[in-house]
Amino acid sequence: IMIHEGNGVYSAALGPNATSGLHGVQVTMVRAGFTTTILDLNLTIRSTTELIMITFDPSSSWYQNENLTFSVVYRDSLYSTPISGGSVNITIYGIVYQTEYLDGVYSTTIFLHFTPGPYIVTINATAEFCNPSLEQPMITVVAKTHVYITLDIVGASEGQSAQIQATLRDNATNGPVSGVTLYFEITIIFRNETILIDEEIYAFPTNEEGVASFAYLIPQDAEHLEVVVRYLGTPPVWSTDTLRTVPVSPGVLSALMTFILTPPGMYIVIAFLLLGTVAAFYNKKVKPKKRAAMDSLERQLQDFADLETLRHFMAVYLDRGTCVFYHPFVEERIQPDLISGFIAAITSVYGEIKGDGVRGTLEEIQYHGLRLNSYSGKYVIGILILEGEMTKLLRERLQFFIEMFEKHHSVYLEDWDGLIDCFDPEWVVSNLIGSFNYTMLLPHKFGKKRKVSKLDGKILDLIGTRRNNRREFYLRELVKPVAALMGASEAKAMDKLLAMEDRGLIEPIGIQTVLQRQGLGLANGEDETITAPVSRLATITAPISRPKPTPPPKAAPAKPKPATKKIDPIDIGSIAAEPEIIKPREGIGTPLPGKPTPMDPVRVKDIDKSTPKLVMTEKAKETKAKPAEKKKVPEEEMSEADKFITEVIDLLAKEKKKDKSD
């Protein structure tokens, strides 16, 4: 029902829930006394609208040459329903961009190819039966950072791996750009003009120094390598790329094959083949011999060190416990009778403890750093007293000498009567020193030979400064100085000294000198230099053979001792240099020239009846029947070893008496 407003005007108010669009309205006008009039009208209802922007923050800054997506919702503000079929246009910098409608959202993407600065964005939305909407936000376009790439290719050789390295830097600061990915594209141009494009794109990140690198294997016959490096950029940073083409050098194999085909190359190949043959022969034949020679020198030096530990030697008769022969290797002396009684007591007590009456075999006793080692033969126990380990070599040489001693004196040892005149000191000491090759440790003196090499002359000069008041010297004191003089090892220095001994430049003192200093030599005995009867290196074979001793005749009157002849000093300056060849000493198994072989044992029936026989005097018979009382040594004059042995003997004697009384 319409309300009369006056002046013939009627009006009606429609409710707010009316939908937008074109509506038909029929107006019927009725008044009494008047004709009823019906009027049909068209009524257009428009929606109130609004624009809501999504995925776009007007306050944000946007980098140039980046894509900016505008998304807005054009809707009925009364019912909050999207308006479809409308037209939403976005205008920026005079350019109009139309949007597309999808699921209630109008959107478009704009590439910001604008110079940096602020820009007004106009968003205009219209639709049928809808009020238009307008928004004008402002955006800021920010300038992007420029970067550049440097590319290095190292080792571009065919058949080899080239190192490809790219560095990304900021144009403005020249600082490295790290943590971004660089992409490498590689093309290979071959010598036959074939082009191969590697379909794989290699992607590697940059490190803290802005470097991305990798190794690329270049195929054979490649002539050029073309590398493209790309950086795709980020919103704040421009993209960039670079290209570099480098020549590929011929590979080692190709260059070598080309060179080999030339005459100089063929000569070199032949030379290498000959050199390889010589090297193979050297490694197979010569080198093992040199190694064996060096090992022999080292063993020789070790044997020398083992001999330095020797202190005393004793031969004790088994049945009597009597010391048959005693030889000190050092200036100190011990009481051999005391030790022989000690050994006899131990072996005897061993038999009584076991109850079978069989003598025991003593192997080793250790006391205050001294070692007493023995070897028991058929008649004699050989005893070595030394400061150190009883090595296998020393044990074998002790056994060898005892067996040789018993074989040489078997006719006397089988039923020995207690007389020691049958044991020739010269034979015993000479063969003892020879068996152990102890000449190396004897005092030495200058030889009579005058023609020496330059090196020998220097060594003799050095020796001259090391001689004692007897004008003698010891090899053990010269090994280190000679090694320093030669600039060689101690093993080679020792071998050099022994070689000089073999050539007569130096020589050990004679056997008579050794005996005289022990009070056993002849006053006018001929002093012959001791020559080594056995090798310095190998195992023991043959001893020095001397005639079997016979009972000595009446002593001849002593001859006056010949005057000593003074040796003139050696003139080193006039000595011509001689080449030195170091080689191992001659093996033991090789018989020495001019030396007799060992004598066979002499049997009683083989002795010539004309040979003077040993006649035992009445005093000797009494001595055999009743052993002479030994002179007791005061305790304060005894050594530690003698005191220890005396205590053990007393203890064993007490135990033996106690067993008998029980």
Class computed from helices, strands and strand pairing: alpha+beta
Mean pLDDT: 75
Number of strands: 30
Strand content: 25-35%
Terminus-to-terminus distance: 162 Å
3D shape = elongated
Name of the CATH architecture of the largest domain: 2-Layer Sandwich
Low-pLDDT stretches are: 522-526, 528-631
- Overall number of domains: 5
Number of helices: 12
Helix percent reads: 25-40%
Q: Kindly provide the radius of gyration, computed on alpha-carbon positions and rounded to a whole number of angstroms.
A: 60 Å
The CATH topology of the largest domain corresponds to: Beta-Lactamase
Largest sheet report: 6 strands, mixed
CATH class value of the largest domain:
Alpha Beta
Short description:
The protein is of the alpha+beta class and 662 residues long. Helix content is 26%, strand content 28%. Strands 6, 9, 10, 13, 14 and 15 form a six-stranded mixed β-sheet that branches.
